[in-house]
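New to this. Look over this protein:
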Amino acid sequence: MPGPVVNVGSSATCPHGGQVTIVSSNARVIASGTPLATMADQFMVAGCAFTVPPGVPQPCLTVQWMTPAVRVLINGQPPILQTSTGLALSATAIPGGPPIVATTQMRVVGT
């Protein structure tokens, strides 16, 4: 599904409100002044309060994307779209749910 390409300045959260920070390896392709995000980048989560019964804290620490853009590449890597599907994961790979990309740049659209 087409959608705006996520960039480092995008606002994203895990399903429990933890903030997603994008650490990009792309320094060549930018939009709105910041690098665009690709599958090769790291998506780190901070401030998640997720707990698994019986009350064991399992905060989301990373985001793993499953459906990036399929028709566009950035430095040989598919970019992440606002409409991409992913999972927020704990340190022990317990899925916490899909991340929410609230805002992103609107100039570059991918499919």
